[in-house]
Amino acid sequence: MSEKMSEKHRFYEETISSKPIFEGRIISLQVDTVKLPNGETATREIVRHPGAVAVLALLDGKMLVVEQFRKPLEKAQVEIPAGKLDAGEEPIVAAMRELEEETGYKAKSIVLLQSFSTSPGFADEIIHLYFTDELAKGEVHLDEEEFLSCEAITLDQALAYVREGRICDAKTVMAVYAWRLYSLTGSF
């Protein structure tokens, strides 16, 4: 951590009160009243999320992706395998679980590439992006409400999907460009 815990950033917003608005299966919403650096108050709408994992998995030089319908966007999306963390679950365990559940492949080894916030202006969700190119056949275990198909695509296909908007979520776009860097330089 770059700042000491006792030191507050000069733009720090102290929480005065917090009001729960919604508690769902995956997210919760709260409205906080905060004291701004200039002494004024403001409200902040905050989405709480348990965090998630995603996996850039290469099989014989192709990236494993899943296609599924995303209701908030009202369209099908091509994405890398991903899913939310269960309570108390370590991200690396969740990454290996989600990879096998959605693609039917197990990672023999897996490496964390980056952990990043998805929408820090209103949500606390952190996604942990992992990489593997050491896969073994496993079994697909989709959740009861999960409908998707899996395929392996080339880097050129992935870049075309980004241009066409078939891939437009941040985690998958990041994975595609990380893969491109890896293919050009041999490292991330």
From TrEMBL:
InterPro entries assigned: NUDIX_hydrolase-like_dom_sf, NUDIX_hydrolase_CS, NUDIX_hydrolase_dom
Cofactor: Mg(2+)
The keyword Cytoplasm is assigned to this record: no
Protein name: NUDIX domain-containing protein
Pfam families, per database record: NUDIX
Keywords assigned: Hydrolase
Domain Nudix hydrolase: 47-175
Entry keyword annotation includes Cell inner membrane: no
Matching PROSITE patterns: NUDIX, NUDIX_BOX
